[in-house]
Automatic annotation (TrEMBL):
Recorded coiled-coil stretches: none
Entry keyword Oxidoreductase: yes
Residues annotated as domain Aldehyde dehydrogenase: 20-478
Family assignment from sequence similarity: Belongs to the aldehyde dehydrogenase family.
Lineage of the species this protein comes from: Bacteria, Pseudomonadati, Pseudomonadota, Alphaproteobacteria, Rhodospirillales
Protein name (Swiss-Prot/TrEMBL): NAD-dependent succinate-semialdehyde dehydrogenase
SUPFAM superfamilies linked to this entry: ALDH-like (SSF53720)
Keyword check for Oxidoreductase: yes
NCBIfam families associated with the record: SSADH
Alphabetical list of CDD domains matching this protein: ALDH_F5_SSADH_GabD
Organism of this sequence: Azospirillum lipoferum
Enzyme active site: 256
GO CC, alphabetical: cytosol
GO biological process: gamma-aminobutyric acid catabolic process
Key words of the record: Oxidoreductase
Amino acid sequence: MTDLTDSTLLRERCFVAGAWIDADDGGRSPVTNPATGATITHVPRCGAEETARAIAAAEAAFPGWRAETAGRRAALLRRWFELILENREDLALLMTLEQGKPLAEARGEIDYAASYVEWFAEEAKRLYGDVIPSPLPDRRIVVVKEPVGVCAAITPWNFPAAMITRKAAPALAAGCTMIVKPAEQTPLSALALAALAERAGIPPGVFSVVTGSARQIGAVLTASTAVRKLTFTGSTEVGRLLIGQCAGTVKRLSMELGGNAPFIVFDDADLDAAVAGALASKYRNAGQTCVCSNRFLVQDGIYDRFAARLSEAVAAMTVGNGLEDGVQQGPLIDAAALAKVEDLVADATRSGATVAVGGRRHALGGTWFEPTVLTGVTASMRVAVEEIFGPVAPLIRFTDEAEAVRLANDSDYGLAAYLFTRDHARVWRVGEALEYGMVGINTGLISTAVAPFGGVKQSGFGREGSRYGIEDYVEIKYLCMGGL
Ligand code: ADP
């Protein structure tokens, strides 16, 4: 790891209560580079005891942190934001090493992660309340917003930095304290962010990162009465489990779960834009994002042309180690991810789909899968029903708008959807008919810190980013002032 400009950003300990600690029992887990299979380093395998200490520290730090002025919290977050950008190259390198995404994408994620910290540093100062006209002459009704309290965040490996900052920044801005449990695969990005938070002067206990056993750490975070809120990004399956675990203590929850994004291309679409949008939304991060297009619904009249153009573009993609120049697609995160993608493609071809391009493990070996386009897919095939989380585009044919909307909404998920058309009336009709939290219209890229990110149905609830994002971390209190 001598390639880091600042080698102190490679942390091999957890950050709890403002101190860098090992697991009580000395247990450590390897962090693996998915491109080479090599062990990068080890991080502590913490469990219940260390998590309890992180909670106690967050509880102890909360009164002081909430009592700071919004301006002071904003200034510390702003400093954190600056430090993230100043260390962009090192953070991106760490991310590519542990996660596999191309370095250019890792740099993009660092900018994106930092943008949440900047945004919420600013929003900290705008957490306004209300004065409501009173029905009685001798009363005044005042609404104030207060921080929820100690928050826990459980985050995934696909965006190792941004999924942390989009939770931690609004929490800290609102005056909450937070404990993060990052994914086992990508703890180094989380620990580097903690090192920079410490450097920025964020007080001890306000932001802790505990690595280790998901089950043990999750059990303690969810059972604790001191933890008032859990925010989770990950699979619907684990989200469901965590919602259940939080029932006992009636916690506030934000859940950003799985998706099955439809990407609808109408006959009147701009073909170039649709192909560009498809590439951006499908193959980014090797298809491992919850807003990646999962099903392409393509109208009869444009289906063959879209399939041909997309296949041509996909066949030209450069696959390799994310550290190499020009690589557009890195490896999948692990062997289980590879097996799932392979299985879904095999199931589709057995059921009658055709491989237009790709379709196999890549010649590079490891966990690489070829960028793939499947034609002749039907809505009932597993590849169109399950979240693929890999570089596979299944193309389904439809005839009219009503059928497209019906197919698009025929899912338990409701995170992101995309549609391509030049008809403005259709934009509104279909945009409103789609049961999704986010709709990209003539674009395949929708994520930005200034807009509300989140889903409906079994894709979860709560919104991250935008002015709505901080609301997930505040309680509304009503003060009724009588006898005036
Ligand atoms: P993904 O499919 O992205 O790996 P997961 O839902 O499995 O999604 O993981 C997302 C996060 O949830 C990770 O930090 C993981 O460690 C954590 N996690 C997985 N299982 C549990 C559990 N039983 N309790 C608490 N956290 C869990």
